[in-house]
Amino acid sequence: MIETILWTDEGVVMIDQTRLPSVETYVTCRDYKEVADAIRTMIIRGAPAIGVAAAMGMAIGVEKANPADLDSQVETISKELAGTRPTAVNLFWAIDRMNRLYQEIRHLPHAEISARMIEESKLVRVEDIEINRAMGRHGAPLVPDGKTVLTHCNAGALATAGYGTALGVIRAAIESGKNIDVFADETRPFLQGARLTVWELQHDGIPTTLITDNMAGHFMKAGRIGCVVVGADRIAANGDVANKIGTYSVAVLAKENGVPFYVAAPISTLDLTLSSGDLIPIEERGASEVTQVFGVQVAPTGTEVRNPAFDVTPNRYVTAIITEKGVARAPFEESLRTLANS
Ligand code: MRU
Q: Structure pTM?
Protein backbone atom coordinates (compact mmCIF):
# COMPACT_ATOMS: atom_id res chain seq x y z
CA MET A 1 0.00 0.00 0.00
CA ILE A 2 1.18 3.55 -0.74
CA GLU A 3 2.21 5.36 2.48
CA THR A 4 0.90 8.93 2.37
CA ILE A 5 1.82 10.10 5.86
CA LEU A 6 3.60 8.52 8.82
CA TRP A 7 4.74 9.53 12.29
CA THR A 8 8.44 8.69 12.75
CA ASP A 9 11.11 9.52 15.37
CA GLU A 10 12.50 12.11 12.94
CA GLY A 11 9.16 13.87 12.42
CA VAL A 12 6.06 13.68 10.23
CA VAL A 13 6.99 12.01 6.94
CA MET A 14 4.85 12.62 3.84
CA ILE A 15 5.12 11.61 0.22
CA ASP A 16 5.64 14.84 -1.74
CA GLN A 17 2.52 15.06 -3.92
CA THR A 18 3.77 18.14 -5.77
CA ARG A 19 6.52 16.02 -7.37
CA LEU A 20 4.55 12.91 -8.34
CA PRO A 21 4.49 11.10 -10.70
CA SER A 22 7.97 11.93 -12.00
CA VAL A 23 9.74 11.88 -8.64
CA GLU A 24 8.75 9.67 -5.69
CA THR A 25 10.27 11.43 -2.72
CA TYR A 26 9.39 11.96 0.95
CA VAL A 27 9.47 15.13 3.03
CA THR A 28 10.10 15.15 6.79
CA CYS A 29 8.35 17.91 8.76
CA ARG A 30 10.26 18.51 12.01
CA ASP A 31 7.93 21.09 13.56
CA TYR A 32 4.31 22.24 13.24
CA LYS A 33 5.23 25.15 10.98
CA GLU A 34 6.69 22.72 8.45
CA VAL A 35 3.48 20.65 8.64
CA ALA A 36 1.42 23.81 8.06
CA ASP A 37 3.61 24.70 5.05
CA ALA A 38 3.23 21.17 3.66
CA ILE A 39 -0.58 21.51 3.80
CA ARG A 40 -0.54 25.03 2.33
CA THR A 41 1.76 24.10 -0.56
CA MET A 42 -0.09 20.81 -1.19
CA ILE A 43 2.84 18.51 -0.49
CA ILE A 44 -0.02 16.76 1.29
CA ARG A 45 -3.58 17.28 0.05
CA GLY A 46 -6.99 15.60 0.01
CA ALA A 47 -9.45 16.19 2.86
CA PRO A 48 -8.77 13.13 5.08
CA ALA A 49 -4.98 13.32 4.54
CA ILE A 50 -5.04 16.99 5.54
CA GLY A 51 -6.91 15.93 8.70
CA VAL A 52 -4.22 13.38 9.59
CA ALA A 53 -1.49 15.95 8.87
CA ALA A 54 -3.21 18.52 11.12
CA ALA A 55 -3.48 15.97 13.95
CA MET A 56 0.23 15.12 13.60
CA GLY A 57 1.04 18.83 13.32
CA MET A 58 -0.71 19.42 16.65
CA ALA A 59 1.22 16.50 18.19
CA ILE A 60 4.64 17.63 16.96
CA GLY A 61 3.82 21.20 17.99
CA VAL A 62 3.07 20.08 21.55
CA GLU A 63 6.13 17.82 21.62
CA LYS A 64 8.42 20.71 20.69
CA ALA A 65 6.62 23.37 22.78
CA ASN A 66 7.94 25.09 25.88
CA PRO A 67 6.19 23.35 28.83
CA ALA A 68 5.99 26.64 30.74
CA ASP A 69 3.59 28.13 28.26
CA LEU A 70 1.68 25.19 26.79
CA ASP A 71 -1.89 26.56 26.74
CA SER A 72 -1.05 29.60 24.67
CA GLN A 73 1.22 27.60 22.35
CA VAL A 74 -1.51 25.03 21.69
CA GLU A 75 -3.74 27.94 20.72
CA THR A 76 -1.08 29.35 18.37
CA ILE A 77 -0.43 25.95 16.78
CA SER A 78 -4.18 25.35 16.30
CA LYS A 79 -4.64 28.77 14.67
CA GLU A 80 -1.71 28.36 12.30
CA LEU A 81 -2.84 24.89 11.18
CA ALA A 82 -6.46 26.04 10.83
CA GLY A 83 -5.32 28.92 8.61
CA THR A 84 -3.69 26.70 6.00
CA ARG A 85 -6.67 25.78 3.78
CA PRO A 86 -10.33 26.73 4.31
CA THR A 87 -12.54 24.20 2.52
CA ALA A 88 -11.82 20.66 3.74
CA VAL A 89 -13.61 20.38 7.07
CA ASN A 90 -11.49 17.36 8.10
CA LEU A 91 -8.72 19.84 8.92
CA PHE A 92 -10.86 21.59 11.56
CA TRP A 93 -12.33 18.28 12.72
CA ALA A 94 -8.82 16.96 13.47
CA ILE A 95 -7.68 20.16 15.21
CA ASP A 96 -10.85 20.07 17.39
CA ARG A 97 -10.28 16.42 18.25
CA MET A 98 -6.68 17.10 19.32
CA ASN A 99 -7.78 20.17 21.32
CA ARG A 100 -10.47 18.18 23.13
CA LEU A 101 -7.84 15.64 24.15
CA TYR A 102 -5.46 18.40 25.22
CA GLN A 103 -8.13 19.95 27.47
CA GLU A 104 -8.60 16.57 29.19
CA ILE A 105 -4.88 15.98 29.84
CA ARG A 106 -3.39 19.49 30.18
CA HIS A 107 -2.81 19.01 33.92
CA LEU A 108 -0.38 16.10 33.27
CA PRO A 109 3.43 16.46 32.92
CA HIS A 110 4.55 17.72 29.50
CA ALA A 111 6.16 14.40 28.48
CA GLU A 112 2.92 12.58 29.16
CA ILE A 113 0.78 15.14 27.31
CA SER A 114 3.14 14.89 24.38
CA ALA A 115 3.05 11.07 24.32
CA ARG A 116 -0.77 11.04 24.46
CA MET A 117 -1.07 13.63 21.65
CA ILE A 118 1.32 11.62 19.47
CA GLU A 119 -0.67 8.42 20.14
CA GLU A 120 -3.92 10.19 19.26
CA SER A 121 -2.53 11.51 15.98
CA LYS A 122 -1.36 8.02 15.05
CA LEU A 123 -4.85 6.77 15.89
CA VAL A 124 -6.42 9.35 13.55
CA ARG A 125 -4.25 7.86 10.78
CA VAL A 126 -5.05 4.21 11.54
CA GLU A 127 -8.77 4.93 11.94
CA ASP A 128 -8.81 6.72 8.59
CA ILE A 129 -7.61 3.58 6.80
CA GLU A 130 -10.24 1.46 8.61
CA ILE A 131 -12.94 4.01 7.73
CA ASN A 132 -11.94 3.90 4.07
CA ARG A 133 -12.17 0.11 4.03
CA ALA A 134 -15.64 0.28 5.61
CA MET A 135 -16.67 2.85 3.00
CA GLY A 136 -15.41 0.46 0.34
CA ARG A 137 -17.58 -2.35 1.73
CA HIS A 138 -20.69 -0.13 1.63
CA GLY A 139 -19.90 1.33 -1.78
CA ALA A 140 -18.72 -1.73 -3.71
CA PRO A 141 -22.24 -3.16 -4.32
CA LEU A 142 -23.27 0.14 -6.00
CA VAL A 143 -20.61 -0.10 -8.69
CA PRO A 144 -21.94 -1.86 -11.81
CA ASP A 145 -19.95 -4.92 -12.88
CA GLY A 146 -18.22 -4.87 -16.25
CA LYS A 147 -18.43 -1.07 -16.53
CA THR A 148 -16.20 1.98 -16.42
CA VAL A 149 -16.12 4.22 -13.34
CA LEU A 150 -15.37 7.91 -13.90
CA THR A 151 -13.60 9.79 -11.12
CA HIS A 152 -12.49 13.39 -10.70
CA CYS A 153 -9.44 14.71 -8.82
CA ASN A 154 -7.69 12.24 -6.51
CA ALA A 155 -9.74 10.69 -3.74
CA GLY A 156 -7.39 7.78 -3.29
CA ALA A 157 -4.70 6.49 -0.96
CA LEU A 158 -2.79 9.72 -1.56
CA ALA A 159 -5.74 11.85 -0.40
CA THR A 160 -6.16 9.80 2.79
CA ALA A 161 -4.00 7.79 5.16
CA GLY A 162 -4.46 4.86 2.76
CA TYR A 163 -6.88 2.95 0.46
CA GLY A 164 -8.90 6.06 -0.42
CA THR A 165 -12.53 7.14 -0.39
CA ALA A 166 -13.72 7.14 -4.02
CA LEU A 167 -10.78 5.00 -5.12
CA GLY A 168 -11.37 2.85 -2.02
CA VAL A 169 -14.87 2.08 -3.33
CA ILE A 170 -13.33 1.16 -6.70
CA ARG A 171 -10.66 -0.99 -5.01
CA ALA A 172 -13.30 -2.75 -2.90
CA ALA A 173 -15.49 -3.40 -5.96
CA ILE A 174 -12.53 -4.99 -7.73
CA GLU A 175 -11.60 -7.00 -4.61
CA SER A 176 -15.22 -8.29 -4.56
CA GLY A 177 -14.62 -9.76 -8.01
CA LYS A 178 -16.09 -7.07 -10.26
CA ASN A 179 -14.50 -6.33 -13.60
CA ILE A 180 -14.03 -2.57 -13.57
CA ASP A 181 -11.86 -0.02 -15.29
CA VAL A 182 -11.45 3.65 -14.47
CA PHE A 183 -11.62 6.87 -16.46
CA ALA A 184 -9.69 9.60 -14.62
CA ASP A 185 -10.38 13.27 -15.33
CA GLU A 186 -7.04 15.09 -15.51
CA THR A 187 -8.44 17.75 -13.12
CA ARG A 188 -7.10 21.11 -14.21
CA PRO A 189 -5.41 23.18 -12.91
CA PHE A 190 -3.48 21.14 -10.34
CA LEU A 191 -3.77 17.89 -12.32
CA GLN A 192 -4.51 15.61 -9.36
CA GLY A 193 -6.22 13.19 -11.76
CA ALA A 194 -3.41 12.96 -14.31
CA ARG A 195 -0.55 13.05 -11.83
CA LEU A 196 -1.90 11.25 -8.76
CA THR A 197 -4.96 9.13 -9.58
CA VAL A 198 -3.38 7.56 -12.65
CA TRP A 199 -0.12 7.00 -10.74
CA GLU A 200 -1.75 5.25 -7.80
CA LEU A 201 -4.15 3.15 -9.87
CA GLN A 202 -1.30 2.02 -12.13
CA HIS A 203 0.64 1.18 -8.95
CA ASP A 204 -2.21 -1.25 -8.08
CA GLY A 205 -2.58 -2.58 -11.64
CA ILE A 206 -6.12 -1.16 -12.03
CA PRO A 207 -6.82 -0.43 -15.72
CA THR A 208 -7.05 3.35 -16.05
CA THR A 209 -7.64 5.73 -18.94
CA LEU A 210 -6.78 9.41 -18.62
CA ILE A 211 -9.14 11.96 -20.18
CA THR A 212 -9.14 15.75 -20.06
CA ASP A 213 -11.97 17.27 -18.00
CA ASN A 214 -13.89 18.46 -21.05
CA MET A 215 -14.14 14.89 -22.44
CA ALA A 216 -16.34 13.52 -19.63
CA GLY A 217 -19.65 14.51 -21.25
CA HIS A 218 -18.64 12.96 -24.55
CA PHE A 219 -17.98 9.58 -22.95
CA MET A 220 -21.14 9.68 -20.82
CA LYS A 221 -23.29 10.42 -23.86
CA ALA A 222 -21.64 7.52 -25.69
CA GLY A 223 -22.78 5.18 -22.87
CA ARG A 224 -19.19 4.49 -21.86
CA ILE A 225 -19.51 5.37 -18.14
CA GLY A 226 -21.34 3.07 -15.69
CA CYS A 227 -21.17 5.44 -12.73
CA VAL A 228 -19.23 8.37 -11.29
CA VAL A 229 -17.55 8.11 -7.88
CA VAL A 230 -15.86 11.16 -6.34
CA GLY A 231 -14.69 12.25 -2.90
CA ALA A 232 -15.66 15.37 -0.94
CA ASP A 233 -14.04 18.14 1.06
CA ARG A 234 -17.13 19.21 2.97
CA ILE A 235 -20.76 18.08 2.86
CA ALA A 236 -23.47 20.38 4.20
CA ALA A 237 -26.45 19.10 6.23
CA ASN A 238 -28.66 19.13 3.13
CA GLY A 239 -26.25 16.92 1.14
CA ASP A 240 -24.69 19.66 -0.99
CA VAL A 241 -21.12 18.54 -1.72
CA ALA A 242 -17.98 20.68 -1.96
CA ASN A 243 -15.29 18.88 -3.93
CA LYS A 244 -12.55 19.68 -6.42
CA ILE A 245 -13.40 22.32 -9.00
CA GLY A 246 -15.12 20.67 -11.96
CA THR A 247 -17.06 18.15 -9.88
CA TYR A 248 -20.27 20.14 -10.34
CA SER A 249 -19.96 19.99 -14.14
CA VAL A 250 -19.41 16.23 -13.96
CA ALA A 251 -22.49 15.82 -11.73
CA VAL A 252 -24.74 17.81 -14.08
CA LEU A 253 -23.51 15.81 -17.06
CA ALA A 254 -24.10 12.57 -15.13
CA LYS A 255 -27.73 13.49 -14.38
CA GLU A 256 -28.35 14.58 -17.98
CA ASN A 257 -27.04 11.21 -19.19
CA GLY A 258 -28.69 9.02 -16.55
CA VAL A 259 -25.36 8.03 -14.98
CA PRO A 260 -25.41 7.49 -11.17
CA PHE A 261 -23.27 10.05 -9.31
CA TYR A 262 -21.84 8.76 -6.01
CA VAL A 263 -19.89 10.66 -3.37
CA ALA A 264 -17.67 8.68 -0.97
CA ALA A 265 -16.67 10.53 2.19
CA PRO A 266 -16.14 9.79 5.88
CA ILE A 267 -18.49 11.15 8.55
CA SER A 268 -15.67 13.61 9.47
CA THR A 269 -16.32 15.33 6.11
CA LEU A 270 -19.92 16.16 7.11
CA ASP A 271 -20.47 19.68 8.38
CA LEU A 272 -23.96 19.50 9.84
CA THR A 273 -23.57 23.05 11.21
CA LEU A 274 -24.05 24.34 7.65
CA SER A 275 -27.60 24.12 6.32
CA SER A 276 -26.53 24.32 2.67
CA GLY A 277 -23.47 24.19 0.46
CA ASP A 278 -23.74 27.94 -0.24
CA LEU A 279 -22.19 28.47 3.19
CA ILE A 280 -19.06 26.39 2.50
CA PRO A 281 -15.93 28.59 2.21
CA ILE A 282 -14.25 28.07 -1.16
CA GLU A 283 -10.49 28.39 -1.36
CA GLU A 284 -9.18 30.67 -4.11
CA ARG A 285 -5.63 29.78 -5.15
CA GLY A 286 -2.92 31.69 -6.99
CA ALA A 287 -3.17 32.79 -10.62
CA SER A 288 -0.03 30.97 -11.74
CA GLU A 289 -1.78 27.57 -11.36
CA VAL A 290 -4.02 28.70 -14.24
CA THR A 291 -1.68 30.83 -16.35
CA GLN A 292 1.11 28.26 -16.24
CA VAL A 293 1.39 24.55 -16.78
CA PHE A 294 4.39 23.28 -14.82
CA GLY A 295 6.23 26.55 -15.03
CA VAL A 296 5.45 27.13 -18.71
CA GLN A 297 3.38 30.27 -19.33
CA VAL A 298 0.27 29.46 -21.41
CA ALA A 299 -1.59 32.82 -21.11
CA PRO A 300 -0.48 36.38 -21.85
CA THR A 301 1.36 38.08 -18.99
CA GLY A 302 -1.01 40.10 -16.79
CA THR A 303 -4.10 38.02 -17.67
CA GLU A 304 -6.96 38.37 -15.13
CA VAL A 305 -7.50 34.96 -13.52
CA ARG A 306 -9.98 33.27 -11.17
CA ASN A 307 -8.91 30.05 -9.52
CA PRO A 308 -11.52 28.62 -7.13
CA ALA A 309 -10.11 25.28 -5.98
CA PHE A 310 -13.52 23.74 -5.21
CA ASP A 311 -17.14 23.94 -6.31
CA VAL A 312 -20.40 22.88 -4.70
CA THR A 313 -22.62 20.24 -6.26
CA PRO A 314 -26.26 20.71 -5.21
CA ASN A 315 -27.77 17.63 -3.57
CA ARG A 316 -30.25 17.05 -6.42
CA TYR A 317 -27.37 15.77 -8.56
CA VAL A 318 -26.13 13.32 -5.91
CA THR A 319 -27.46 9.77 -6.24
CA ALA A 320 -26.03 8.67 -2.87
CA ILE A 321 -23.36 9.53 -0.31
CA ILE A 322 -21.26 6.56 0.79
CA THR A 323 -19.89 6.79 4.35
CA GLU A 324 -18.24 4.30 6.70
CA LYS A 325 -21.55 3.95 8.52
CA GLY A 326 -23.67 3.24 5.46
CA VAL A 327 -25.15 4.83 2.35
CA ALA A 328 -27.21 8.03 2.57
CA ARG A 329 -29.85 8.89 -0.02
CA ALA A 330 -32.28 11.79 -0.43
CA PRO A 331 -33.71 13.38 1.62
CA PHE A 332 -30.16 13.94 2.85
CA GLU A 333 -31.09 16.14 5.84
CA GLU A 334 -32.57 13.04 7.44
CA SER A 335 -30.28 10.32 6.14
CA LEU A 336 -27.00 12.15 6.90
CA ARG A 337 -28.09 13.12 10.41
CA THR A 338 -29.21 9.54 11.12
CA LEU A 339 -25.87 8.13 9.95
CA ALA A 340 -23.84 10.76 11.84
CA ASN A 341 -25.68 9.97 15.08
CA SER A 342 -25.61 6.16 14.66
O1 MRU B 1 -7.06 20.54 -3.50
P2 MRU B 1 -7.03 19.10 -3.08
O3 MRU B 1 -6.16 18.26 -3.94
O4 MRU B 1 -6.74 18.95 -1.60
O5 MRU B 1 -8.52 18.61 -3.29
C6 MRU B 1 -8.84 17.28 -3.03
C7 MRU B 1 -10.23 16.92 -3.40
O8 MRU B 1 -11.01 17.73 -3.84
C9 MRU B 1 -10.65 15.52 -3.12
O10 MRU B 1 -11.57 15.07 -4.05
C11 MRU B 1 -11.29 15.47 -1.73
O12 MRU B 1 -10.43 16.03 -0.77
C13 MRU B 1 -11.63 14.10 -1.31
S14 MRU B 1 -10.19 13.16 -0.98
C15 MRU B 1 -10.58 11.68 -0.31
A: 0.97
